[in-house]
Design brief:
- The structure holds two protein chains of two kinds.
- Chain A is an alpha/beta fold.
- Chain A has a single domain, classed as Rossmann fold (3-Layer(aba) Sandwich), CATH 3.40.50.
- Chain A has nine helices and ten strands.
- In chain A, the strands form two sheets. Chain A has a six-stranded mixed sheet, with helices on both faces. In chain A, strands 2-1-4-5 form a four-stranded antiparallel sheet.
- In chain A, strand 7, helix 6 and strand 8 form a beta-alpha-beta unit.
- In chain A, helix 3 packs across helix 4 and helix 5 packs parallel to helix 6.
- Chain B has a four-stranded mixed sheet with strand order 2-1-3-4, with helices on both faces.
- In chain B, helix 2 packs parallel to helix 8 and helix 6 runs antiparallel to helix 10.
- Chain B has two domains: 237 residues, no CATH class; 96 residues, abc type-2 transporter like fold (3-Layer(aba) Sandwich).
- The model of chain B has no long low-confidence stretch (mean pLDDT 85).
- Classes of the chains: A alpha/beta, B mainly alpha.
- Chains A and B meet through helix 2 and helix 3 of A and helix 1 and helix 7 of B.
Chain lengths: 254, 361
């Protein structure tokens, strides 16, 4: 049975300048995400990826349909669902004047838990930054901290909204490694991305969204065979990212 | 631990580390207190006057000594030309010219007063003062008892300086400013930065978050206002006549009113700029109309009824009555009713308009 199930999710907003007309940010999205997989949601900006995630996460009201996480209905019991999931948001700003350690303690207490911030920081390779403030972190470190803060409740499902957008290739690969490690330890992961290479590298299954609807779904292999079966031109050389990584090395920069 | 307390403690920690916020919320009222405290500590400044003594006899010297002893005047003796220039420059309010043959005998001696007529108001104020003083000096020199001695008794039976009037007003003003900033400005910032959304990823309920914010802000307000009051009492000798517990209750009610009005503003305003403008729109008129710096009774009659109904007016009046007049809350039922009416209005606006569900977006 699916650990996350979206059933005909709908989110509509009033059209600007008109009270009766609506625009559908999400228009009947259904998804089945199995325990233990890395599920990717792809789509152009404005396709409804983030809104879909936020409805499943209990952050945005569901206008119709429902989302079920581990047999619990989000619309009926959002706080119960929040206890089971970890959420990384696109925006990662935090209270001023609090250190990483303070913030993790805060989030953990709000889950009525008493996690050791240092253990969480060690999971994302940030134990040396325990006394730093988020503003002092590099882009990749911020994303890793953001993932650490999503792990405070030892979630069954981890939602990541564009975890590698804006990162340099080293930091991006470092996040991929982290996601793979978490997944191989048994965590189900749902992520959105604009990066096709990332989707192909990480995801066991993918849904492609456009205009608030899912327009294709399946394993990367299946989608490729269905929609782009022609063999690509033989690759005679690497691409520019290969050049970049060769010249600057694979070691993480911060 | 309860989420409300967790949130409250965290927000207190944030505030205690925000040295700039602590400095600026205290800087303004302390500066005001110190300036006005110094200004009103020495009583009235003596009026600078010049005297040209054309007689230089024992009688004219006695006359000058009597004037100097008055304390109302600070006397400079010199030549007419020099003193005339000083009046022109504004260094002296006036110069009296004592004529030749000023010996207090037989015929009246004509004194001349040099003034800057452009300072019409000052001249109009000073002339009767000088005449009165001359009359006193004359009585003293001639050893005449006044026919109608006048004794002035302060019905409040204590001397009130401007600083004693001002301090309670400043305390009330500070309560308003830090409360509105603490709820309204913070909410807008937290929403804009996505911090609220990040919090609501956890199972915290909006009520717990608001509760934590209110608790922490009340605590901060009580500490800061107490600190200001302590400065006023210790450094400026402002007496606290009333009950400290009642004062504390007033601080908490006042702060709750402005916290709830702040939440209301914070739910209307979408950006930092909007909340700044809205905050100024609500707080600035009250700063000047609510009797913080001068009594409402001294304002134009048309404004008074409106001014008296402003929320800050009730807080100013309550705090001032307790500190200055030692009144208890039972002595000022209308003020207490006004405070609770505003608290009800503030809470209603905050609860009706605060978007609980969309708080995170």
């Amino acid at each position: 049975m699916a650990i996350v199930e979206a059933q005909e999710l709908v989110k509509r907003y009033p059209k600007p300048g008109s009270k009766s007309e609506h625009f559908f940010a999400v228009n009947g999205v259904s998804l089945q995400i199995e325990a233990g997989e890395v599920f990717g949601i792809l789509g152009p900006n404005g396709a409804g990826k983030t809104t879909t995630l936020e409805m499943i996460e209990g952050l945005t009201d569901i206008d119709s349909g429902d989302a079920i996480v581990d047999r619990i209905s989000v619309s009926k019991n959002p706080n119960k669902v929040k206890e089971l999931i970890g959420v990384q948001l696109q925006a990662n700003e935090y209270f001023d004047h609090l250190t990483l350690s303070d913030l993790l303690t805060l989030f953990s207490r709000l889950f009525k838990r008493d996690e050791d911030p240092n253990i969480l920081l060690a999971k994302v390779d940030l134990e040396e930054k325990a006394a730093a403030k988020p503003a002092a972190l590099s882009g990749g470190q911020k994303q890793r901290f953001s993932i650490a803060s999503a792990l405070v409740n030892d979630p069954k499902v981890l939602f990541l909204d564009e975890p590698t957008t804006g990162l340099d290739p080293q930091a991006k690969r470092n996040i991929w490694k982290l996601i793979e490690d978490l997944n191989s330890a048994g965590m189900t992961i749902v992520l959105t991305t604009h990066n096709m290479e990332e989707a192909e590298h990480l995801c066991s299954r993918i849904a492609i969204m456009d205009n608030g609807k899912v327009i294709a779904e399946g394993t990367p292999q299946k989608l490729i065979m269905e929609h782009a079966p022609e063999a690509p031109q033989a690759r005679l050389h690497g691409n520019l990212e290969d050049v970049f990584l060769k010249l600057t090395g694979h070691a993480l920069r911060e | 631990m309860n989420s409300t307390l967790t949130m409250g403690r965290t927000l207190l920690k944030i505030f205690s580390r925000d040295r700039q916020a602590i400095f600026f919320t205290l800087f303004f009222p302390i500066t005001f207190m110190v300036i006005f405290g110094i200004a009103s500590s020495g009583g009235e400044d003596p009026i600078e006057i010049g005297i040209v003594d054309n007689s230089t006899n024992a009688f004219s010297e006695r006359f000058i000594d009597t004037l100097e002893a008055d304390g109302l005047f600070n006397v400079t003796i010199g030549e007419e030309d020099d003193l005339r220039d000083m009046v022109v420059d504004g260094d002296l309010a006036l110069t009296l010219i004592v004529p030749r043959g000023f010996d207090g005998r037989e015929q009246a001696a004509d004194l001349t007063m040099l003034v800057d007529a452009a300072q019409a108001r000052q001249t109009a104020m000073l002339t009767p003062l000088v005449e009165q003083t001359l009359l006193n000096v004359e009585r003293e020199l001639r050893a005449i008892e006044p026919l109608f001695p006048l004794t002035v008794i302060d019905v409040q039976a204590r001397s009130q300086r401007y600083i004693d009037f001002l301090v309670p007003g400043l305390l009330a003003l500070t309560i308003m400013q830090i409360s509105v900033a603490g709820s309204g400005y913070n909410i807008v910032e937290y929403r804009r930065k996505g911090i609220l959304k990040r919090l609501f990823v956890t199972p915290i309920k909006p009520g717990h978050f608001i509760g934590g914010l209110v608790l922490s802000r009340l605590f901060i307000t009580v500490i800061q206002v107490s600190f200001l009051l302590a400065v006023a009492v210790v450094l400026l000798g402002v007496p606290v006549e009333g009950n400290v517990i009642e004062l504390l209750a007033l601080i908490i009610i006042g702060s709750s009113i402005f916290l709830s009005l702040g939440f209301w503003m914070g739910s209307i305003a979408k950006t930092q700029q909007a909340i700044m403008l809205l905050g100024n729109l609500i707080t600035l008129p009250q700063m000047f109309l609510s009797g913080v710096f001068f009594p409402i009774d001294s304002m134009p009659d048309l404004l008074q009824p409106v001014a008296k109904l402003l929320p800050l007016s009730f807080v100013v009046s309550g705090v001032r009555e307790v500190i200055v007049n030692g009144a208890s809350l039972i002595d000022q039922i209308p003020t207490v009713i006004g405070l609770f009416a505003w608290l009800a209005i503030g809470l209603t606006l905050a609860i009706r308009l605060f978007r609980w569900k969309e708080v995170a977006t």
